[in-house]
Amino acid sequence: MHEIIHLDSLRHQGFLVEGSYYEPYLRAQAWPGLTNRKVAPHLLPHERGTVFDLYVRNTSENHLGNIADEINAYGHVLPFICKHEPTSTGKQVRSLIGFLHIVEGYLRTLRTVMPGEYQNLAAHRETRGALILIIERGWAALRECGVSDAAIPAHEASQFITKARLAVPTSHSQTR
Q1: How large is the angle between the packed helices 89-113 and 64-84, nearest 10 degrees?
Q2: Neighbouring residues of 160: CB distance < 8 A, sequence distance ≥ 6
C-alpha cells in the first residue's frame, strides 16, 4: 500500500492526499537545494536512527521533497495498519517518526545554515502548502494510532508552520 501511494503520486506528478494531488511533488527546483548528503552532518544524535541509516545515507541526492513523499506514504498507510494489522504498527510508527525527525533536521539546517533557502521555502506557496499539509497529516496519523504528542517530532516544523502562516496564508495547489 505504501508503494502504491508513491507510484500514484509519481504518475500524477502530485502528492496524493485524501484523493487529490498536490504540487510541486518532486521537482527539484521547487525544493531547497539541501540534499540528504548535505543535511546529514547537521542532524542531531536523536535524529540519526534507522531512517537515517537506511534511507538518508543511501539516497544522498534526495531532498526535502523526497522526505515529504515518504511522510505522505506513511501517513496514508499508518491508520490502516493500526486498525487492521496492529502487529505491524510499531515498525510503521517508528518509520514515520524517523522521517519526521529528518524533516526537523532539514528545517533546522535551512533556518540556521541556509536562511535564504528557508525564507524561499516559506514563501513558495505550493511547496510550503504541500509540506505543511503532509507534515500535519503525518502528525494526525500518529495521534490516530495512539502516539502521544510528546513522542512526535514537531519543534522545527511547528516553528516553520507558525512563521509561514503568519507571513503568508497557506494554500495548497492541486494538480487535479
Answers
A1: 160
A2: 107, 111, 118, 121, 122, 132
> What ranges do the domains of the chain cover?
2-167
In one letter, which amino acid is 116?
G
CB 176 within 8 A of CB 12: yes
Burial of residue 98 (number of CB atoms within 10 Å: 0-12, 13-18, 19+): buried
Residue with grid cell 508513491, as numbered in its chain: 6
pLDDT at 170: 47
Tens digit of pLDDT for each residue in 25-55?
A: 999 899 999 999 999 999 999 999 999 999 9
Report residue 85: phi and psi, to 5°. Answer: -135, 60
Q: What are the phi and psi torsion angles at 171 (to 5°)?
A: -135, 160
CA nearest to 161, candidates 137, 125, 139, 131: 131
- Percent share of the chain, pLDDT over 70: 95
